[in-house]
Design goal:
The protein has 87 residues and is an alpha+beta fold. Helix content is 25%, strand content 47%. It has one domain. The chain has 1 helix and 5 strands; from the N terminus they run H-E-E-E-E-E. The protein starts with a helix and ends with a strand.
Amino acid sequence: MILNPYLNSVKIKYIILLLFVNFLIVNSSAQNTFFMGTVSTGGSHNEGTLFRTDSVGMNLTVTANAGVYIIEVCSEEGIFVERIVKN
């Protein structure tokens, strides 16, 4: 069976994203954390957004696009706190 290289690269990027988000979950100091949102692949990019809200009212958005991961943290009121870009 011959595997499509494009599908393999998308799967690898998706797995890396899931591992990175899992790292954030494990290292989160917040209690009662829950996640909502979607992570999807489409076109030639691995894109998607995952939203997290925790018990202290902070929102975390992880956006993946073509291997660049943007993490934005803001308060429950929408006040911007921090933005991290991972390549």
